[in-house]
Amino acid sequence: MTRARELAELGAVYDNGALSNRNLIINGGMTVAQRGTDAKTGHATDLYGTDRFRAIENHSGSMSSQQVADAPVGFYYSNKITVTGTDSSLSASEFSRQLTSIEGQNMAHLNWGTANAQTVTLSFYVKCSVTGTFYISLFNSAADRSFVAGYTIDAANTWERKSIKIAGPTDGTWLATNGAGVYVTWSIGAGSTYQTSTLNSWASAFDMSGSDQVNLFATNAATWQLTGVQLELGSETTPFEHRSFGQELALCERYFQKYNYSSDVSTADTQNTLPVVAAYAGDTGYAGHKLTATMRTSPTFSASAANTWQFYSGGTSLAASEMTAYETGPSIWGMKYVATSNFTSGYAVYGRALSTSSYYQFDAEL
After folding, report:
1. Strand (E) or helix (H) holding 166
2. How many whole angstroms separate alpha carbon 127 and alpha carbon 188?
3. Do the beta carbons of residue 178 and residue 297 sit within 8 Å?
4. Out of 13-27, 153-167, 324-338, which region has the weakest mean confidence (pLDDT)?
5. Domain limits for position 305
6. Per-residue pLDDT for 9 more than 50?
7. CB-CB contact of 75 with 67 (8 Å)
């Protein structure tokens, strides 16, 4: 094959004209796990094993979600779901799924909801301990338009790549704002309320799967893993777009930022100190700080318990009774310290981690 022919075919494959910034999915290689690499276990809760990918369970079973170093050739990490409690008979309204979302501003160019709606292709690598039929679905923020398509796990505990072409919807409301433009989900069990016979096309409904969907939760300790997720403009599947860790982390920080503290909390003061605030009155201090990245919207702040922090003012250590945020915005936030006794007037105040579990975080997930 001539060089000219190779270039021509390359141009045909990348039919959106871009060799980079093709992938609309953030953290599709599961490289970023700001919440930690330990298994997140729960029942009826959102579990983030890796950033931007949350597992949702709505039945009497339970599961864990975790970043693991197990992946197909060309990757290192995957997000692993493990059944920790079974529910072998899902009722009509019960379900479980893995989900990610695309911000409306990042998919406005697809022109979904118009006569010019663009076709996209979803590809991913999956590994499951149970063979059979599974389903992906896409739906809008109003949950009144959905697309359902099936894929088959052909061999247990084997990495397989799947690819699904999705014609753009010409009706429905698709946000082009900082809200959710589209949700992309992988069903791992769904009751009849969310099952449909309308496959590979858009429906005015909120569906997740077909009637032959495997219920992963029928098998104790069953596992389902995902990586290499790519959603791209066009009708062809292209090689996964690997971004650097720094790029992927920066993209994730628009939706979530977590500050963990060093395991050496006894000596590594520079790694374990909180932002400095000014003593304001009595036992309270305030200061404004800039977030690492501008977030999608004003985030929700949370932190480890007060007894995991220590405050210092004028050389005196004071026990913490409160550490909260005030007047939080997408790019800046204010920290408030409250101690169990008064700060020294006119002094700066800083806080320090007392525990390896000390953290504070900002959440603006969709």
Report:
1. strand 160-166
2. 12
3. yes
4. 13-27
5. 257-363
6. no
7. no
Quote the CA–CA distance of 63 and 68 in Å, as a whole number: 15
Last residue of a domain, one of 201, 234, 252: 252
Number of domains in the chain: 2
Secondary structure element (H or E) that encloses residue 82, with its range: strand 78-85
Q: Tokens representing 267?
A: 């000596």
> Does 174 share its domain with 283?
no
| The model's pTM | 0.93
CA angle 247–176–35, rounded 5-degree value: 40
Task: Tell me: do 60 and 80 sit in the same domain.
Answer: yes
In the chain the first and final C-alpha atoms are separated, in Å, by 47
**Domain identity same for 233 and 272:** no
Task: For residue 160, give the nearest of 73, 231, 79, 219 by alpha carbon.
Answer: 73
Task: Determine contact, residues 46/74, Cβ cutoff 8 Å.
Answer: no
Query: CA separation (Å) from 122 to 65, 105, 165, 193?
Result: 22, 19, 6, 25
Q: Are residues 72 and 194 in the same domain?
A: yes
Q: What stretch of H or E contains 248?
A: helix 245-252
CATH code for the domain in which residue 81 is found: 2.60.120.260
Encode burial over 170-184: b for 16+ CB neighbours within 10 A, e otherwise.
eebebbbebebbbbb
Residue 162 to residue 125: CA distance in whole angstroms: 6
* 294-305 average pLDDT score: 96
Q: Are residues 124 and 83 in the same domain?
A: yes
Residue 264's pLDDT is 63
Q: What is the pLDDT of residue 16?
A: 47
One-letter-per-residue 3-state SS of 271-326: HHECCCEEEEECCEEEEEEECCCCCCCCCEEEECCHHHEEEEECCEEEEEEEEEEE
**Least confidently predicted of 270-279, 291-300, 315-324:** 270-279
Q: At 4, which helix (H) or strand (E)?
A: helix 3-13
